[in-house]
Design goal:
The complex is a heteropentamer, with 1 copy of chain A (310 residues), 2 copies of chain B (281 residues), 1 copy of chain C (315 residues) and 1 copy of chain D (308 residues). With 310 residues, chain A is an alpha/beta fold. Chain A has helices spanning 19-26, 29-32, 48-53, 64-72, 119-128, 150-153, 167-173, 208-230, 232-242, 250-264, 273-284, 303-309; strands at residues 4-9, 35-40, 59-62, 77-81, 89-94, 109-112, 141-144, 159-163, 181-185, 197-201. Chain A has a 5-stranded mixed sheet, sandwiched between helices. Chain B has 2 domains: 28-103 and 180-280, P-loop containing nucleotide triphosphate hydrolases (Rossmann fold); 109-178, no CATH class. Chain B has 9 helices and 9 strands. In chain B, the strands form 2 sheets. Chain B has a 6-stranded mixed sheet with strand order 5-6-7-3-8-9, sandwiched between helices. In chain B, strands 2-1-4 form a 3-stranded antiparallel sheet, covered by helices on one side. The two termini of chain B are 13 Å apart. With 315 residues, chain C is mostly helical. Chain C folds into 2 domains: 1-64, no CATH class; 112-310, MetI-like fold (Orthogonal Bundle), CATH 1.10.3720. Chain C is built from 14 helices and no strands. Chain C has helices at 4-25, 27-36, 46-50, 54-60, 79-96, 101-104, 112-143, 145-158, 163-176, 182-205, 210-218, 223-261, 266-275, 279-310. Chain D has 308 residues and is mostly helical. Chain D folds into 2 domains: 8-84; 100-306, Orthogonal Bundle (MetI-like fold), CATH 1.10.3720. In chain D, helix 7 packs across helix 8 (173-197). Chain D starts with 7 loop residues before the first helix and ends in a 9-residue tail after the last helix. The chains are: A alpha/beta (310), B alpha/beta (281), C mainly alpha (315), D mainly alpha (308). At the C-D interface, helix 1, helix 8, helix 9, helix 12 and helix 13 of C face helix 2, helix 3, helix 6, helix 7 and helix 10 of D. Bound molecules: adenosine-5'-triphosphate (2 copies), the ligand Cc1ncc(C[n+]2csc(CCO)c2C)c(N)n1 and magnesium ion (2 copies). One adenosine-5'-triphosphate is lined by residues 37, 39, 44, 46, 64, 66-72, 239 of chain B. One adenosine-5'-triphosphate binds next to strand 1, strand 2 and helix 2 of chain B.
Chain lengths: 310, 281, 315, 308, 281
């Protein structure tokens, strides 16, 4: 039987954040759907949007702000599924410097991820009425945070961006007690944006065969996700086996899997239009320099999930 | 005072072409040769009105102060430089044709052996380039090595030989393809006097044995007198011939000949010619 | 052997300096840990300590610095920590580890041996491409005046472009035209290594002086003969000198090329170490890379000695 | 020989005409565009060959510009003719437009990365290497002990050192300067040491016959003799310094700088901005290199390599 | 045949020290001088049992085949090399003391001018190092430039001068600080015969005018004979003195003197001495 080839480009390195796809691959869920899937790990400065534009992938895992920004820049990406129901991004601060509420952020130095991940932060600051051009009254100093949590540990920044499932635990692993830290979940600040969705090129969706292929892909992936939620330890081990850098540790990946499961828990793969609207509103409200200037049209479709889930 | 003296010599020079030995056509013949280099600082008149005929089997030395055009003349003969006026023939051909016909061997001032080739390899180099068959290459290499007294050193590398031996190897290389003409530009300039004496003796013997026509540039008056059948004295700016001296010395020349009356007289005349050229300058 | 003495002395001096620097560099973290463990630190809070000079802080709390040489996330790891990490991620992992070569039959992806192997392959491929390209360009430049005039300035400009910063994009673009795996890394590696080869080789091919070239003319040699019998042999010492620089550049290129791809290699290892805050792992990978570079340079030097000897140079 | 070639009178207009024609065809059929690009390149070759055969003054400048022009035309035409997505490779015209529209931003990045990070690191690194070289030259022990270890240090790849230095020296330009110091230190050291040793035994003996002290031997013989090497080192280090400063920004930076701009713009798929930043880097690098090369020709006018 | 001849000369040599002119203490005096270089290939015996006394105002030439130790001896005198045996005094001091007292000027084989300094700057170099005041530096520079006939070239760079002019500048540099002893190691080796002749004449005149003591290494027999009051002939491996010839030529020496009987006889004796050394080898 002829297998359909699908290439998936991840947003980041191989880790439990992408456990569902690796599980689906390892457990043969893709194969059962007649798919021959290749998973390409991402990495720093690899833009999945660019990869798909160049034809290097059929479908990508991307965060919605980056996908919508790309759409405005002339790359028509469409969300076909949203395995992550909730956002895991937060700002983690030292409590002992006197930060308790968002207002206390004024005049601080903050570490932020750029590379398309800065939009929710900028939008949040704009709703708070805080500028981002240097540590002074009514403004914060923004650092382009690198790949790790050192800026916080070294106290080069008062707060840094973390994911609930990853960097936060690295801070804890470094010996910091949860009591010393204050977390601001973007979810709770009302500036949540959708993370880790599946995106394809708009023109590809005109082909019913491709839609069918994607439906099977999403179905198998969601099976993978649910399997991973139920078997976090096995899932983490599968991820570890696929990690070619050999840098991940079992303990950390199992914990990450457990945390990720909380974010995927509410999702069957279908995009929640309400969450989509919050994301769009957040991005449109990005202050003087919004990420997107107009309400996007056709940036998501339920055609694939409809086919997949029925 | 010096001027009429030169004029007289020049007159003699110009009369030469018909005087080449045995009346046969000269091997190298230059008429009214001119060469001007174009440089950034303006033209350099390197050769002016040079007339010279060299007959078969002659040993001709060129002597003159630095920059007088000795090298330039030799290079013209070799087809490495192109005269801007006058005519020059080698074996009746143009110098370029002669070069392509491999009519001559050229020995540069420094030995210029390739350090990555053995002595044998260095001597084989022109033979390879000229496409001699392998067996003949070996045979010729053996023969010229013997000729310059370097048999047994074929497998050695240049740095394993003394300066004098290197220079002999370089001469062997020029001899290997057996051109009738040998052009040598200060081949012994870098050697000390004693080694030089020995090589001079050997060169004379070689010339005697092979009957080649030799053009030889030198700065040393005794060397020029000792070696040549004909000494061409040149003066600079623009380079021209001020004197051509036919040597009365016999073909057989022991080194002692340098203490002879005749030798000292020719040397004196050469020195006078050189000084005249300087004063004239 | 005579050189070993001074090297050892300097090395020991550096090690001593290093050990002395460790508590100063790590003072903040060490004191914070001591504070969490209940010790009395002066000043008492991390916020107060934040902007203080490290040396002063270290002197005032000299008694609390015992842990500085064994922190898990040090700013500056102690040499023995790095040594332990290198040991653990080479011999120990391969011999005793579940994925090591002893138990699994292939090198463990957690060992530096495995990653050095990946990097070495990309480096070798990149170096080969870069060297060949550099030599070809040099041959073109030496033989064509048009190329000489127009290409050389651009070769210089090419080196002012921060290719290292563009590596991710280049890999993506290459990916989109179907080039993947070893080749993208090798191309970046080649980009960094061709330049020294061009410069050195042009110099080498032009090394024969006018006299040697004239000599060839007196034999009426063709330009191919001049190239093979004169220019090429004369350029060998220059070629090797520049290849030593190029091979080190190749290694840097390969490591840079590995960063975004994250499919193994010392570069991926360094980044992963940085990403997870495993300082010792970065340092170990760093030292492995430096050792690899030294090895490669030594290898080129060895090739050089052999070639020159085969060409008859003084042994 | 040169008479057989078309003169510049023929080749130059042909080149210009073909370039224009190629640009005009850019949105037409790909095959036609490709053919015109090849013809343009050939005409450019002919023009440069004709100019250089004549030895026309300024050929040294015209030739590389002609090649640059050929590359730009080919780039523009091929990107358009083959409809390469802008998010993969934008055409030069788009890059130029972005460049022009973002001058203030790019200027700020230039100041941050090149002037603050690159130049400071360059000065400190080269200066430290110079002083070390004097020490190494004075004490043979250090030469034999330090130089082998130095070559080990030179092999430390920037991608490993940059995160560490950002951790040590913070996110500002200081850490970038530190990365640059580390990058330029060894090449400069090696060159200076080689230069200081590049005196003949005769020149050194001459100083001894004068009973000269170490200091005056250094000032009057070794330093002047080392100048060509020192300047060569300085020249090599220019490009290293810029690359180091830019790359280090990938590992943490404030919200400006060329490295920051490049990495952020890739994330936003603003490829025009990426390339505009690269243009700034290349221009700055070439200018920096050019300035040092110019100083080199001025200061070492006496060296044989500068005399021809 | 050659051996007794040398023995005889050596005997004469050893008798010398007491024979120095005017009975005054010799300026340079070597007794049983030995020097062995230790090299990787084993020891090189460069000088063996050298005995020599040079009196004030003498012009002493050293001649001998390449590698016989001429340079080494001169370097010992200059304190640049340290003998491994015997005693050597310069002005009654050890060579090192003499060096520090700036007792001599040294001219190396090649001109060895610093390319980054003008001719004037090169000549000022030793003066700067020795701490002469600025005004005196200028004055001395002017004077020696005139002495070597280079007035007007002060602002030129070395490469803008011909080889002969460079060599004269190098001599001027050695003269500038007016040491009583001048040591010259083949100063004219690289020059052509005509320029060399002129420089030889000028050197003689200078020596005559200043009354300096000169030690002069050369490869050229005519040069040695023409210039010296005393010719030291050396032979190689291990380097030793085989003959010391006191010249009967007058102090006034036109170039023509080289065609004279006396000159030719001395030259002959030198050549014989050299050959004997070679045969002996
Ligand atoms: N390629 C060249 N371009 C310009 N001028 C040249 C060139 N070759 C030689 N000259 C000049 O032509 C003149 C004659 O030079 P040539 O080399 O023939 O002299 P020479 O007699 O061989 O001198 P030497 O004894 O120093 O070798 C000199 O003034 C020299 O500077
Ligand atoms: N530094 C050294 N180390 C080892 N051997 C040396 C050294 N200097 C000179 N020699 C050897 O000592 C011997 C005498 O050398 P020296 O330079 O004095 O000869 P020379 O008479 O000046 O020769 P030339 O006429 O070639 O200049 C030679 O065999 C030489 O190889
Ligand atoms: C250069 C760079 N920096 C930060 C991120 C943000 N980011 C997106 S997913 C992810 C993994 C979470 O553990 C992180 C850190 C990025 N993509 N690239
Ligand atoms: Mg010449
Ligand atoms: Mg000598």
């Amino acid at each position: 039987q002829e297998m359909d080839e699908v290439t998936l480009q991840l947003k980041w390195v191989t880790q439990a954040q992408f456990a569902g796809y690796y599980v689906a691959l390892e457990e043969g869920f893709y194969e059962e759907e007649g798919l021959d899937v290749t998973i390409l790990p991402g990495g720093p400065d690899i833009a999945p949007t660019q990869v798909i534009a160049g034809g290097g992938a059929d479908v990508i895992v991307e965060w919605m702000p980056a996908a919508l920004a790309a759409r405005e820049n002339g790359l028509p990406l469409v969300n076909i599924a949203q395995p992550f129901a909730a956002s895991g991004m937060q700002l983690t601060c030292w409590g002992d410097v006197g930060i308790e509420s968002p207002e206390d952020l004024d005049n601080r130095t903050l570490g932020v991820w750029f590379f398309g991940n800065e939009y929710p932060f900028l939008s949040w600051m704009s709703t708070l009425g805080i500028a981002t051009d240097g540590a002074s009254e009514g403004s914060v100093e923004v650092l382009k945070q690198g790949f790790n949590v050192d800026p916080l540990l070294q106290r080069q920044a008062d707060c840094i961006s973390t994911m609930t499932y990853n960097e936060y635990w690295q801070v804890i692993d470094a010996g910091v007690t949860p009591e010393e830290l204050v977390n601001f979940r973007y979810d709770e600040q009302g500036v949540a944006t959708l993370e880790d969705g599946l995106y394809v090129m708009e023109e590809d969706l005109e082909d019913p065969e491709f839609v069918d292929e994607m439906a099977r892909f999403v179905r198998a992936s969601m099976r993978g996700w649910k399997w991973a939620e139920e078997n976090p330890e096995e899932a983490a081990m599968i991820v570890l086996d696929y990690d070619e850098t050999g840098a991940q540790t079992e303990e950390h990946q199992i914990r990450m899997m457990n945390e990720v499961a909380k974010l995927t828990a509410g999702s069957d793969g279908a995009l929640d239009p309400e969450a989509y609207q919050i994301t769009v509103d957040t991005l449109l409200g990005g202050g003087s320099d919004p990420v997107i200037t107009a309400e996007p049209e056709g940036a998501w479709t339920s055609a694939v999930t409809d086919a997949a889930l029925n | 005072m010096a001027l009429p003296h030169i004029m007289e010599r020049s007159a003699v020079t110009e009369a030469r072409p018909d005087r080449s030995p045995a009346g046969s056509a000269p091997v190298i013949s230059a008429t009214d040769l001119d060469l001007t280099f174009r440089t950034n600082d303006g033209p350099v008149h390197a050769l002016k009105g040079v007339n010279l005929a060299i007959g078969k089997g002659e040993f001709v030395s060129f002597i003159g102060p630095s920059g007088c055009g000795k090298t330039t003349f030799l290079r013209c003969v070799a087809g490495l430089e192109h005269p801007t006026g006058g005519t020059l023939t080698v074996n009746g051909m143009s110098p370029d044709e002669a070069r392509r016909a491999r009519a001559y061997g050229y020995v540069f001032q420094a030995a210029g052996l390739y350090p990555w080739r053995t002595i044998g390899g260095n001597i084989r180099l022109p033979l390879e380039i000229m496409g001699f068959p392998k067996a003949e290459q070996a045979e010729r290499t053996r023969r010229v090595l013997e000729l310059v007294d370097l048999a047994g050193f074929e497998k050695k590398y240049p740095w394993q030989l003394s300066g004098g031996m290197q220079q002999r190897a370089s001469i062997a290389r020029a001899l290997a393809f057996d051109a009738d003409i040998l052009l040598m530009d200060e081949p012994f300039g870098a050697l000390d006097e004693i080694v030089r004496d020995r090589l001079n003796e050997e060169l004379l013997r070689l010339w005697d044995r092979t009957g080649k026509t030799i053009g030889f540039v030198t700065h040393s008056i005794p060397e020029a007198v000792y070696l040549s059948t004909k000494i061409v004295v040149m003066s600079p700016r623009p380079g021209r011939i001020t004197d051509v001296i036919d040597s009365p010395l016999p073909r057989e020349r022991p080194l002692d000949i340098r203490d002879s009356r005749a030798f000292i007289e020719i040397a004196h005349r050469v020195r006078e010619g050189l000084r005249a050229g300087m004063v004239d300058d | 052997m005579r050189a070993l003495g001074p090297v050892l002395v300097v090395l020991l001096a550096l090690l001593a300096l290093w050990y002395a620097a460790v508590p100063v560099m790590n003072v903040q973290e060490t004191l914070t840990r001591a504070e969490r463990a209940g010790a009395v630190i002066e000043p008492a809070s991390a916020v107060e300590r934040r902007d203080m000079a490290s040396i002063g802080l270290a002197l005032r709390n000299a008694g609390q610095l015992g842990e500085a040489w064994s922190l898990e996330r040090p700013r500056l790891p102690a040499p023995h920590q790095i040594a332990a990490e290198i040991w653990a991620s080479t011999w120990d992992e391969e011999v005793n580890g579940r994925r090591g070569i002893v138990q699994s039959g292939s090198f463990s992806n957690r060992s530096l041996v495995y990653h050095a192997g990946i990097t070495l392959t990309a480096t070798a491929a990149g170096f080969a491409i870069g060297a060949v390209l550099g030599i070809l360009l040099a041959v073109g430049i030496v033989h064509s005046r048009v190329l000489d005039l127009s290409l050389m300035p651009w070769a210089i400009v090419s080196q002012t472009i921060p290719i290292v910063a563009l590596a991710p994009m280049i890999i993506v673009v290459l990916y989109s035209v179907g080039v993947q795996g070893l080749l993208p890394k090798a191309i970046i590696s080649a980009y960094l290594s061709f330049f020294p080869v061009v410069v050195g080789m042009v110099k080498g091919l032009r090394a024969p002086d006018a006299m040697q070239l004239d000599q060839m003319r007196t034999w009426n040699a063709s330009s191919a003969q001049v190239f093979w019998k004169l220019r090429l042999p004369a350029s060998v010492p220059y070629l090797f000198a520049s290849m030593k620089i190029a091979v080190a550049a190749s290694l840097v290129g390969a490591i840079v090329g590995e960063l975004p791809v994250q499919q193994g290699g010392l570069g991926a290892r360094m980044l992963a170490g940085s990403y997870y805050g495993q300082t010792a792992q970065i340092w170990a990978a760093l030292f492995a890379a430096a050792a690899l570079a030294a090895l490669l340079v030594w290898f080129v030097g060895w090739l050089e000695r052999r070639t020159l000897r085969a060409m008859g140079g003084p042994a | 020989m040169s008479g057989a070639r078309p003169g510049p009178a023929l080749a130059v207009p042909a080149f210009a005409g073909l370039a224009a024609l190629a640009l005009w065809s850019a949105t037409g059929p790909a095959a036609l565009a490709l053919a015109l690009v090849v013809l343009t390149a050939l005409a450019g070759w002919g023009a440069v060959a004709a100019l250089s055969a004549r030895g026309t003054a300024g050929t040294g400048l015209i030739a590389p510009l002609a090649l640059g022009l050929v590359v730009l035309v080919a780039w523009e035409v091929l990107v358009r003719a083959f409809a390469v997505p802008q998010v993969i490779l934008p055409p030069p015209s788009v890059i130029a437009a972005t460049f022009a529209a973002n001058l203030p931003t790019l200027w700020g990045d230039f100041v941050q990365t090149i002037l603050k990070g690159g130049l400071t690191g360059y000065v400190i690194g080269c200066g430290a290497a110079f002083l070390t070289a004097l020490l190494v030259d004075r004490y043979d022990f250090l030469r034999r002990g330090l130089l082998p270890l130095g070559s080990f240090m030179a092999a430390l790849p920037i991608v490993g050192t940059a995160p560490i230095l950002v951790m040590w020296y913070g996110f500002g330009w200081q850490s970038k300067a530190a990365v640059v110091v580390l990058m330029v230190y060894f090449p400069m050291l090696v060159n200076t040491v080689a230069g200081l040793a590049d005196t003949s035994a005769m020149q050194r003996d001459l100083m001894r016959t004068y009973g000269a002290s170490w200091g005056s031997t250094l000032a009057k013989l070794r330093l002047p003799a080392a100048l060509p090497f020192i300047l060569n080192g300085l020249k090599i280090c220019t490009t290293l310094a810029l690359i180091g400063a830019i790359v280090a920004e990938f590992f943490g930076s404030p919200t400006l700088g060329l490295g920051f701009r490049i990495s952020t713009s890739i994330g936003a798929l603003d490829l025009g901005m990426v390339w505009a930043s690269i243009v700034v880097a290349a221009l700055a690098g070439t200018a920096f290199y050019g300035v040092v090369a110019l100083i080199e020709t001025r200061v070492t006018f006496w060296h044989p390599s500068q005399r021809r």
